[in-house]
Amino acid sequence: MSAIRSRARDGGTGVRTHRIDVTLKDHGYAVHVGSGVRRLLPAVLEELGVSRVAVVSAVPEGELPDPGVPFTVVPVADGERHKTLASVESYCRAFVDAGLTRSDAVIACGGGTTTDTVGLAAALYHRGIKVVHLPTTLLAQVDASVGGKTAVNLPEGKNLVGAYWQPGAVLCDTDFLRTLPSRELLSGYGEIARCAFIGAGDLRGLELTEQIVASVRLKASVVARDERDQGPRHILNYGHTLGHAIERATEYTWRHGEAVAVGTVFAGLLAGRLGRVGQDRVTEHREMVESYGLPTWRPSGVSVTTLVELMRRDKKKGWDTDAGLTFVLDGPRGVELVTGVDEHLVSSVLADLPSGPVPTPA
């Protein structure tokens, strides 16, 4: 099981941090959350026994901590258009140029697209080398950097090529969030909002760092029970089936968290239409999402047919044209995987959602 120790001092650095321990069958690591936790990097690398690193970073070199070992900086750009197999190849070639061996490590510093893509490169290079994540966006801190899922996109869909590769540590320095553009912050809140329906409860009254900690703690507990999506981990996909379809349909002009927010509202509506939850719970989904300033509409200019077609490609199941679609939905036994949902019902619920433009934060 995972455990949390709040505001413990680490490594004699004086950095005060929340620590969440992710305990898996054959591997464990710590997620540190707080102001200045990037300064823990040298101690983390020493504990991992690393003597050389490549720092793949989407932030200016001046914002990077000194890792305390010889290092090479590989500058990259965040964004879904860089989340490709071509990027993975370029990172691996940079690792060769840096002289990395299996005893070395990669540092991924950036948003969720960077941690996903660099994580996959680390999983493949020399058949796997250590990776440490320094997520710089709210989305990456509450979700993408934790849990060991790494993946890139194909033209046919999101996250279709990937591997499970757990990090050696995750350092969620909340100082990175101070200069985060408002729309990127909004995207992160999309993942936090959906946590309310999968076990975290209502986090809105908490300070942002505490919301991050609660979200990570929930994910750590789920991943500890099911590292490779064989059962309980499906709940982390809440809102994501439609969310991924919206991202792909809009060519990623909608951010991940914005799309997941709409997917969360849709999940509530669909559960209501299936008689799994009452109207009060359906309304709670919409109100939770709205309270964060997130969108509750599907994108204009994208047909219901297109969204359904993209949801057919969802990777968490083998889809059968006669069996219907699969979603993670709320219900009397809590959130669970629901198969065989009629496509016509899905289309009807989607049609009931209003359509609107790309979100613009207030």
Task: Give the tags.
single chain; alpha/beta; two-stranded antiparallel sheet; globular; disordered N terminus
Number of strands: 14
Quick one: biggest sheet? 8 strands, mixed
Distance between the termini: 40 Å
Helix percentage range: 25-40%
Please report which band the strand proportion falls in: under 5%, 5-15%, 15-25%, 25-35%, 35-45% or over 45%: 15-25%
Radius of gyration: 20 Å
Assign the structural class, choosing from mainly alpha, mainly beta, alpha/beta, alpha+beta, or little secondary structure: alpha/beta
The helix-strand sequence is EEEHEEHEHEHEEEHHHHHEHEEHE
Shape: globular
Q: Major sheet: order of its strands?
A: 1-2-3-10-7-6-4-5
Mean pLDDT equals 92
* Helix count from the secondary structure assignment: 11
Report the oligomer. Answer: single chain
Question: Which segments are poorly predicted (pLDDT under 50) over 5 or more consecutive residues?
Answer: 1-11
